[in-house]
Design a protein that fits this description.
- This protein is an alpha+beta fold.
- The protein is built from 13 helices and 47 strands.
- The protein folds into 5 domains: about 150 residues, Jelly Rolls, CATH 2.60.120.260; about 110 residues, Immunoglobulins (Immunoglobulin-like), CATH 2.60.40; about 300 residues, TIM Barrel; about 90 residues, Immunoglobulins (Immunoglobulin-like, Sandwich), CATH 2.60.40.10; about 180 residues, no CATH class.
- A hairpin with a 2-residue loop joins strand 8 and strand 9.
């Protein structure tokens, strides 16, 4: 790769040819061991004693691949011994789910269902041919990603064992191995044994990639010089324009050697190629080991790496010993400094705001991470298209391909040790995991430490144990050893103890929306982060659920099937709402997007707030099925928000507003304050335009500022605009758009304006707050009744509705409220002729919806649809209503569990909706479709729901447990 492949496409052919020649040179000394292997499952742990490395294994399997992909293992049953935690065991007992527990119809709701499942030892075997010209060379078997503990035999000689989740496993073959035919035998064991990183760690849990057995990625035997580069680490020094290169050398059989090493470097992924002058230094190896440090001057002109200009260098290191032995290594690196300066992150001296997402190791086609660069480029490109520049890897470390791709595209990474040391394990208590974390993070930095994108690191996720003592020492160790990145002990929730020497904080506590109060855009998280003196990044921001997208089911054509989605879809049909799945998805999606927009904007307007990590941009298929992404598990859009729309409020530069509310009466002052958060490449001399646009697309008001200088790393106050819509007699919705002229940077918000007073509606409707005898008499006589049932609901009382949607999911959190996902309405329904609404929740509904009871219509006629229908959690799929109409007796009835009347001071939305319903009830269009018996309606206020949620598990997720002991 000699040039930026993304920008100058005519160089693509040259780059591919260059890589082909390099790979051919490597292949001259390489034997691939991919393909068909012999295979046998060792469920009874008899293979070692029986010396299976000495027999011909009877089955076959294709590698790279997993047992699951090859349909090896056990069928899924109710007795399958899963690795991950199951906190909601109601699936095993709930009578309504009995049909999904049948042997021929097992459908589990906890996570995706693998074709086959197996934990234990399995044996893999392949014959190889060692060339005659390899005599005297060092030979290494390299397996990029076995999962997880591997023992290796050549013929009947065991040559080693390794256990790691983070790097390739390399096994040196015996030096006296003769040319000709030999047999490689692997024993791979994916059980949790003495080293327990945590059964829910994303490095191995069923909740994400799955606890698979096999080998993926590159698989080969390579022959090379017996004198070789063991390790090369490059430490950029931008101020001095040098690269300090630390080299570890090895020589087989503990021999000694002297000679020369030559270093040179060439830039790539840049418009202009920069060649760094070569430098030669002498080396010395004694008793098989040697080391040296070389400062390589990078020249007067250097190119630096960041999200805007991901310039890279390729270092070439050549070794020539005095007796003619040679070795060569190429190392990719960037001239990059990622520092904490006070409470801010700085990249190459410029402030940066981390707009990130957690990667939870969701790869639904394979069940293991993608091992190729192109797949990771796709993930990072999609993330960048949504305005993001950062990715955290929750309790796992991605393969080398991810670092290569992130380097190429300019993306900041926070890989973690492969541990969520909770749920059966802990740190700091003298368990084997304590040393394993150091071993794994050392392997990570040795193999991936040169990649410019490797900017941050943590031990892993939310531990238990003596964590303060352990993680403080962990931070000290890494800060002293490697200054190329920043360290935080762990990524944690808000109740975890603070590790005092963190270089940055990844914590909850300063996230979420306080929509128990009227939505606004003034409040910040300043108070919640005031105690910290280092950069703060929000941990697992968002987690707003959306209804399942059942169209996604057909995508699961690989090693996993979405049986959980199938269960939820069938259950929705069983509740007579199968035809509403798409509307539930779209309406809940719009609410989810509204929540993400407001939370991200709140973070951006908070001084000294330095980033957020969503959990996550795409769905998480485990932990009860957590549909919290605006993208599905395949990183595809779901249809309710595009990348371009999301990027408007999640970008390097984002216009913001300050308003105390989003709903006004026309006699109130509407004076939004405009500000811009700018974290771009350089200051901008900006001209800013604000427009108010009505629902027809007509611009009704324009205001301009500028030019204004927007410094990097600051929130710049632009000014206020004043607009009056008074007088109006009909409610209206206006969109405020603020844009920086001539750029992509723009953002928008919707506002609603209602008349300050409404005319009286002459009506014969009987308004009541109780379905009393008079209401029954009116209905029997053919009259009309409006029932304000606020606070009176019994059937549905257990369903908690707020304006916010379900958090994470109601299964994992054991039905922690809220339980709903917004609502659906038909905006064309004449009931809303005087009330502007779309088909989903929006700000004008807040005062109507928040903390309002919902009604469970479990006994209503099949096909009955309310006027306003809250969307239930997909684990229960109850048919809910907030407003419905029906023919009852000879009359017509509207029932509202929301408090609606003409006498609601300070609640213009509720007043306006009631007015619209009144006008509807006196019109000829008021003609309910369904007949419902009076007693069925009355039963809503007398009898509890038949369908109830019960859990049979005493354990609970961390967030519901008492605060962990810091000792």
């Amino acid at each position: 790769m000699l040039i930026n492949l993304f920008k100058l496409k005519h160089w693509h052919l040259l780059a591919v040819l260059f890589l082909f020649l390099l790979s051919n040179a490597a292949q001259a000394q390489t034997i691939s061991v991919q393909g068909k292997w012999r295979f046998k499952i060792d469920a009874n742990d008899e293979g070692l004693k029986a010396k299976w490395f000495n027999i011909v294994l009877p089955e076959t399997i294709n590698l790279p691949g997993s047992m699951n992909e090859n349909f090896k293992g056990e069928d899924i049953t109710l007795k399958t011994k899963w690795t991950g935690s199951i906190y909601d065991s109601s699936y095993f007992y709930n009578p309504s789910l009995a049909k999904y527990r049948q042997a021929n119809n097992i459908k589990i709701p906890f996570w995706l269902t693998p074709n086959k499942y197996y934990t234990g030892a399995a044996w893999y075997q392949k014959d190889i041919q060692i060339p005659t010209d390899w005599n005297g060379k060092r030979m290494v078997l390299s397996l990029e990603y076995p999962h997880s503990e591997t023992r290796v035999w050549i013929d009947d000689v065991e040559i080693g064992s390794q256990y790691t989740f983070v790097v390739a496993q390399n096994f040196e073959l015996p030096a006296n191995l003769k040319p000709g035919k030999h047999t490689i035998t692997l024993q791979i064991d994916n059980r949790i044994k003495a080293i327990n990183v945590g059964q829910d760690s994303h490095s191995l849990t069923d909740h994400t990639q799955g606890n698979w057995n096999g080998v993926v990625g590159k698989m080969f035997i390579q022959a090379g010089s017996p004198i070789y580069f063991e390790d090369i680490q490059v430490y950029p020094d931008l101020k001095r324009k040098v690269a300090k290169v630390k080299i570890q050398l090895k020589a087989g059989q503990n021999i000694s050697s002297t000679g020369n090493i030559t270093l040179s470097a060439t830039s790539f992924n840049t418009k202009e190629i920069i060649n760094v002058k070569a430098l030669t230094k002498a080396y010395s190896i004694t008793n098989g080991n040697g080391s040296l440090e070389i400062e390589l001057p990078m020249g007067g002109k250097i190119v630096t790496w960041d999200e805007f200009d991901p310039a890279l260098y390729r270092l070439r290191a050549s070794l020539v010993s005095k007796d003619g032995k040679k070795d060569e290594r190429q190392v990719q690196f960037g001239m990059r400094e990622f520092k904490a300066v006070g409470r801010s992150f700085h990249v190459n001296g410029r402030p940066v705001f981390l707009r990130g997402t957690a990667n939870n190791c969701e790869f639904p086609l394979t069940g293991y991470p993608s091992m190729d660069v192109e797949s990771w480029l796709r993930i990072f490109k999609i993330s960048k298209a949504h305005g993001l520049n950062h990715m955290r890897f929750h309790s796992w470390c991605p393969p080398e391909a991810a670092f290569i791709a992130a380097d190429l595209i300019g993306f900041y990474l926070q890989p973690e040790g492969p541990s969520w040391a909770n749920h059966g394990t802990s740190i700091g208590n003298g368990k084997p995991i304590d040393q394993f974390i150091y071993d794994e993070t050392n392997r990570m930095t040795k193999n991936y430490g040169n990649y410019a994108s490797f900017c941050m690191m943590a031990y892993g996720n939310e531990p238990s144990g003596r964590q303060v003592e352990y993680l403080t020492k962990f931070n000290d160790y890494w800060k002293a050893k490697d200054s190329r990145r920043l360290y935080t002990g762990a990524s944690v929730g808000g109740s975890w103890p603070v590790i005092p020497n963190n270089e940055f904080m990844v914590r909850a506590g300063a996230r979420g929306l306080d929509w128990g109060r009227k939505p606004e855009s003034i409040s910040t998280y300043a108070k919640q982060i005031s105690q910290f003196t280092v950069p703060f990044v929000a941990h697992e921001m968002g987690q707003y659920c959306v209804y399942p997208n059942f169209k996604e089911i057909k995508k699961y054509t690989g090693a996993y099937k979405a049986k959980n989605f199938e269960l939820f879809e069938e259950d929705l049909k069983d509740h007579n709402m199968g035809d509403q799945a798409e509307s539930f998805l779209m309406a809940s999606g719009k609410l989810q997007a509204l929540c993400y927009k407001n939370e991200i904007e709140k973070a951006l307007r908070t001084p000294n707030y330095n980033g957020y990590q969503l959990l996550s941009l795409n769905d998480y298929p485990g932990q009860g099925t957590a549909l919290i992404g605006v993208l599905d598990a395949f990183w595809d859009e779901k249809g309710y928000i595009t990348a371009k729309e999301f990027k408007r409020f999640s970008n390097s530069t984002v216009p913001l507003i300050e308003v105390p509310k989003f709903v006004y009466t026309s006699d109130e002052n509407f004076e939004p304050k405009i500000e811009i958060a700018h974290w771009g490449k350089a200051p901008i001399d900006a001209k800013i335009t604000a427009r108010l646009i009505d629902e027809t697309g007509k611009v009704v008001f324009t205001f301009k500022w500028g030019p204004r200088t927007l410094p990097v790393g600051e929130i710049t106050q632009i000014g206020s605009l004043k607009y009056s819509s008074n007088p109006i007699t009909k409610s209206r919705k206006l969109k405020l758009e603020v844009a920086i002229d001539g750029t992509e940077f723009a953002n928008d918000w919707d506002f609603w304006f209602f008349p300050p007073s409404l005319p009286e509606v002459k009506t014969d409707v009987y308004y009541t707050t109780d379905l009393d005898d008079k209401a029954r008499a009116v209905l029997n006589s053919g009259g009309k009744v409006f029932l304000n049932a606020a606070g009176k609901v019994i059937k549905g009382k257990e369903v908690v509705q707020t304006f916010l949607p379900v958090f994470w999911n109601t299964s994992w959190f054991k039905m922690r409220p809220p339980h709903t996902l917004g609502f659906v309405v038909d905006p064309k329904n004449p009931a809303f002729a005087e009330f502007p609404t779309s088909y989903h929740s929006d700000m004008q509904w807040w005062e109507i919806v928040n903390r309002t009871q919902v009604m469970n219509l479990e006994d209503f006629p099949k096909g009955f649809k309310p006027i306003v229908q809250p969307i239930d959690t997909w684990f229960l799929n109850r048919r809910l209503a907030m407003i419905f109409e029906a023919k009852v007796g000879n009359g017509k009835l509207i029932v509202s569990s929301a408090n609606l009347s003409s006498d609601l001071k300070g609640m213009p939305s509720a007043q306006q909706l009631y007015y619209s319903l009144q006008k509807y009830m006196v019109s000829d269009q008021f003609n309910p479709k369904f007949n419902v018996d009076f007693n069925v309606v009355k039963d809503i206020f007398e009898t509890p729901s038949k369908q109830k949620f019960e859990t049979f598990t005493k354990d609970s997720p961390d967030e519901l447990k008492p605060k962990p002991n810091s000792n």
